[in-house]
Design a protein that fits this description.
318 residues; mainly alpha; two-stranded antiparallel ribbon; 15 helices
């Protein structure tokens, strides 16, 4: 009996995607990770980070236990403690990412110029895209390590209650996207400046101004919308509410807080019902949750900054 003819399956079909293989073969990633994890500094930062998180959790839980009028074993008290502990850890991680992220990448390109190795690096076969992605990936990997090590501390909120799996997933996604954004911001500033100090100051100035200016603008817009809602027309209130919603998504803190409020009140994770009250009618406006807008906006800005950084690195120095 003759065996059926079978054609061998090409190896390319069975092979996994080569994204990770390309990342592992990038010499910039290997050099940066080995240099960062070889010394004591990385482990000292990691230990201090976990110690601060542990102290924060103990302080928050102790304060809630003292201020509560009921027993700490009461279910409502435990759920409140779980919410506050989880929110405190997430907000602390947002502050950490905004503080450390630009510092890791602000000297990515300028340090090569200062050590007079940039011209030598550009004469190699390494492309500008590989150089930029290598610098960005190494910094993001270290920050993602810090985020992953805090997951067991975040999981303590599950023992207390009041936290769902969707909150953990959404907060993790926002932290990963913000990590990419802040690291890309520092790399972007490093690509067009000559000194590391200038790139670092520029990165923190952009973060500080954006948080303060957009935060104050959002607060003023909320106050004006609340005052104007009693006498304004329906279309103007709709426009103001949509603008206010977009402004809240530009800040990671406001996006996380507003999303959490609507998730607790209405159990709305993706689509939120926002009531509108005007001079003529009272209606409801359906808007995506602020964390969705925040993730989309920061991904677009990250892609633009990475693209511009590649163009600046590829451009010959004058």
């Amino acid at each position: 009996m003759e065996e059926p003819l079978t054609s061998p399956i090409p190896k390319k079909v069975l092979a996994p995607p080569n994204v990770f293989r390309r990342a592992a073969e990038n010499p910039v990633i290997l050099k940066e990770l080995r240099g960062r994890m070889r010394g004591r500094r990385a482990f000292i930062v990691l230990t201090a980070y976990l110690v601060l998180l542990g102290l924060l959790v103990c302080t928050v839980y102790g304060f809630i236990a003292q201020q509560s009028s009921t027993s700490p074993s009461d279910p409502s008290t435990r759920q409140l403690a779980g919410k506050v502990v989880f929110s405190s850890v997430i907000l602390f991680e947002f502050l950490l990412i905004g503080f450390i992220g630009p510092a890791l990448t602000a000297g990515a390109i300028t340090s090569e110029r200062e050590h007079q190795t940039y011209d030598l690096l550009r004469t190699t076969l390494l492309s500008a895209r590989s150089l930029v992605f290598g610098k960005l990936s190494s910094a993001c990997m270290y920050l993602l390590l810090l985020i992953l090590t805090a997951v067991p501390i975040e999981a303590l909120a599950f023992l207390l209650g009041g936290i769902g799996l969707e909150e953990l997933l959404v907060s993790g996604l926002m932290l990963v996207v913000d990590t990419l954004f802040f690291c890309a911001l520092g790399l972007f500033c490093s690509s067009f400046t000559k000194r590391t100090l200038t790139a670092t100051v520029t990165s923190y100035a952009i973060i500080l101004l954006s948080v303060l200016v957009l935060g104050i603008a959002t607060f003023l817009l909320v106050a004006f919308t609340s005052y104007y809602s009693s006498s304004g027309s329906s279309w103007s209130i709709t426009f103001l509410t949509g603008t206010m919603w977009l402004m809240s998504a530009t800040n990671p803190f406001s996006a996380a807080i507003v999303s959490e409020i609507f998730l607790i009140q209405d159990q709305a994770l993706f689509l939120v019902k926002v009531p509108l009250s005007g001079q003529t009618l009272i209606s409801t406006l359906y808007l995506p949750s602020p964390w969705i807008l925040h993730v989309g906006l920061y991904l677009v800005l990250t892609a633009l900054m990475v693209l511009i950084s590649i163009l600046f690195v590829r451009r010959p120095d004058r």
